[in-house]
Amino acid sequence: MTIPTKEHVIYVDEQDREVGTGEKLEAHQKGVLHRAISVFIFNKKGELMLQKRAKTKYHSAGLWSNTCCSHPRPGEDVETAARRRLQEEMGFTCDVKKVHHLLYRTTFSNGLIEHEYDHMFIGESEVTPILNPEEAEDWKWMSPDALKKDIAEHPDIYSYWFRLALNDILAKR
Questions:
Q1: CA 94/CA 125 separation, integer angstroms
Q2: Per-residue pLDDT for the chain (173 aa), expressed as one digit of tens each?
Q3: Are 116 and 108 in contact (CB under 8 A)?
Q4: Residue 91 φ/ψ region, left for φ over 0, alpha for ψ in the -120 to 50 degree band, beta for the rest
Q5: Active site residues
Q6: Distance CA 113, CA 107 (A)
Q7: Does domain 8-172 have CATH number 3.40.390.10?
Q8: Rounded (5°) CA angle 173-63-112
């Protein structure tokens, strides 16, 4: 299992105003509200690029999720973070546009707590990603209808935040 120890996240209030910074792992151990980003890349057919999170991730390992997600670094704006993480996780970049945000809190089976103000971005690309194996172990394109059906039948194979955000993201497209 890969546990982040040196990365820092931006602590925020419920209006996304910065209130400090802290270590990423500590934020997830204590459930501190922090800023996050999620990227959803669609192709010209309207299919969404999914990634299967690496089995070594410290939470939601091996689950299918949106194209990429992470946290801005202290001093980094959310759009820059979205592009950076798309490159780091999936090996490509493209234009992205912020379309939504999601404030949520959940506790995972390992005791870690995800409490995030998540800025959501969409983009369009036709590329074949080059996966960073520390982040993602697989990927696929999936149509919105097939995806919604599969989530209804197998919710436990998808990340929590992805299930929460999907309908809003599809409506913003």
A1: 7
A2: 444 458 999 999 999 999 999 999 999 999 999 999 999 999 999 999 999 999 999 889 999 999 999 999 999 999 999 999 999 999 999 999 999 999 999 999 899 999 999 999 999 999 999 999 999 999 999 999 999 999 999 999 999 999 999 999 999 98
A3: no
A4: left
A5: 69, 116
A6: 4
A7: no
A8: 105
